[in-house]
Amino acid sequence: MNSQYRKKWIPYKLNELGSVGRGRSRHRPRNAPELYGGDYPFIQTAEVTASEFYITSYSRTYSELGLAQSKMWNKDTLCIVNAGENTA
Fold this sequence. Notes:
Layout: H1 3-8, H2 14-17, E1 36-41, H3 45-50, E2 61-62, H4 64-68
Antiparallel strand pairs: 1-2
């Protein structure tokens, strides 16, 4: 990083800027078809990786049952992926 910027930046911990949380999924969703097909976006690593700034598309949706075992995030939530995309 350029030192001119480093001098101007104030370092913060993430929890000083907002809430920190993680998604939760009790099932491996691909093995439970009843969790799919509803109105709730099921955002996966590939969709986060493909987005430039906002996630504007997704390939799957959760049903009510799927949402119940997962987590709904507010609009404009910053999404940081901590798992690799399966490229196999």
